[in-house]
């Protein structure tokens, strides 16, 4: 079955190929396609700001500006007062025709002058830079972007917020902060991860009537995750059917990390969960969550019997990088069990790299990814797609690169992007939860790719449900109840106790 355009994510080169295919398949001109984009933009404007009476459209010299000029014609015909501000005295190619059409219809073009104030309007429309920009905007463009951002007036961005890299989501300079972005023909992958998610606002796709036959020959570079849960269990199921997760971690002062990973594994459906930790943590963890089987482990010899009983390992939450953690890390990896590696499990891997031959899922945040690849965090964030693919290829694992718009990649280059999650999840313990959820999916029979995708989706969606009471102050443990509900496919994540 062909992938829906609403789930498929493309590179800039792929989008250009789709545009060429659309022109041929639909037998239309570039101008007609641009006019369709203008109609889609005007529809979005009216839906989101139905009371707007005056708008300013900020046009660059290329086709993105051409969309803006044509939108201006439509808006004036509908009775809106329209100010058009242009970055340059002339426009290129098809945009020049659109500009001439605006002027022929009686519209005036005001050249941007950073010594003058912006027009007083209800909505700013960003039509400055399109998918071709792969650098920071020039001085004039940057000044206009900063003035629009400072105006506190709502912004509609056409195709993408100006200054944003459509391929990577990087922001090399000034970038429009949009309230709504209407993107045309296909989703650009860079709009869905990293710094981009703070800039696009509400994201809409307008396919402009492009037929499915144009999309079908082209394999998307990535896909958006879809909301999924495991199927219902058989009525005769027993705990042994759902796997035994062993959490290895919880060095001194970090018992909470091991508890969160273990409890998340239970809430995500693992049949049994054991925790191998420091002796001083055993009483507290058993008292707090008696369903966890907590054992004192002082070294490899006491860990080995637990490894034999386990079906899946969650290695790293609170493990530490000292002698105790390192010895357990080596022993656990040598056991050859399906493994989820996080936190200090990853930091130790950066010191002693290996290629995995057993099913392994790694869940680094950008700092851990940077250590694993010998790069800076800024370099990771400039191109998260390349980074996660390199990690998966280098280590022979399925890799989850956490952050806004988390990415899941495998060693063959397959990649999915998570469309859920919120800033409240940037708090301690959230990664430990994800480790436990991935381990639970593996324990219940999922392959690493499916386990990672399911877990990332459940984790982020549980975070969004928990954040209904506010993002600031969100605790990792707040996700456990909605996680259970979502894992059982209850409607809208309703509490199973309702």
Automatic annotation (TrEMBL):
Its EC number is 4.2.1.136, 5.1.99.6. One of its GO terms (molecular function) is metal ion binding. K(+) binds at residues 64, 126, 162. Residues 222-490 form the YjeF C-terminal domain. AMP binds at residues 402-406, 431. Pfam families: Carb_kinase (PF01256), YjeF_N (PF03853). It catalyses: (6R)-NADHX = (6S)-NADHX; (6S)-NADPHX + ADP = AMP + phosphate + NADPH + H(+); (6R)-NADPHX = (6S)-NADPHX; (6S)-NADHX + ADP = AMP + phosphate + NADH + H(+). Keywords: ATP-binding, Isomerase, Kinase, Lyase, Metal-binding, Multifunctional enzyme, NAD, NADP, Nucleotide-binding, Potassium, Transferase. Homotetramer. Catalyzes the dehydration of the S-form of NAD(P)HX at the expense of ADP, which is converted to AMP. Together with NAD(P)HX epimerase, which catalyzes the epimerization of the S- and R-forms, the enzyme allows the repair of both epimers of NAD(P)HX, a damaged form of NAD(P)H that is a result of enzymatic or heat-dependent hydration. This is Bifunctional NAD(P)H-hydrate repair enzyme. It comes from Rhodanobacter fulvus Jip2.
